[in-house]
Amino acid sequence: MSSLETKLNPLKTTAQMQAYQYKGLRDPQEVRLLILDPGSGLDSIRCQLKHVLLSSNPSFEALSYAWGDSSKPRKIFCEGKPIAVTESLFTALQYLRYADRKRVIWADAVCINQVDTREKEIQVPLMRQIYSQASLVVGHLQTEGMLSVGLLI
């Protein structure tokens, strides 16, 4: 399907696409970082996932947010494939992306394969280290309006 067709009928394209398939992590210190593509307004949220070792001191920001209601998932596109996320994460990513450059973020719901119990058992204990190594921790609080606060830790 051409990019023009995708813009004209994104719902049809999403329904026809297979969901994103996570590539396995090979090392207990390996994590995924979300490379958030530039965008603004109602542009679809597009990203890639990059595997890195925490021991290599990668540069990234970490996102802290309330997961919120998962009964009405939204779609982001990772490497062209859809991933279902909560409205809260969708809004945070929409708000945090830059208009003119990529942004590297760690967000648990996307960076950890949520359907892989074994992976979660390994990744969840790394969260303290992940937040500690982040150059910035962004707290996203969603109420009637939106508020995101960056914290240097």
What does this structure look like?
The chain is of the alpha/beta class and 153 residues long. It contains 6 helices and 8 strands. The protein has helices at residues 3-8, 10-16, 87-96, 108-111, 117-123, 127-133; strands spanning 30-36, 46-53, 61-65, 74-78, 81-85, 103-106, 136-142, 146-151. Strand 7 and strand 8 (146-151) form a beta hairpin. The longest helix has 10 residues, at 87-96. The radius of gyration is 15 Å and the shape is globular.
Q: What assembly state would you assign to the polypeptide chains in this entry?
A: single chain
Q: How do the strands line up in the largest sheet? A: 5-4-2-1-6-3-7-8
Poorly predicted residue ranges: 1-10
* C-alpha geometry: globular
Helix and strand element order? HHEEEEEHEHHHEE
Terminal residue distance: 44 Å
Q: How many strand units?
A: 8
Helix content: 25-40%
Major sheet description: 8 strands, mixed
Radius of gyration: 15 Å
Structural class: alpha/beta
Number of H- or I-type helical stretches: 6
Strand content: 25-35%
* Mean model confidence by pLDDT: 86
Summary, kept brief:
The chain is α/β, with parallel strands linked by helices and 153 residues long.
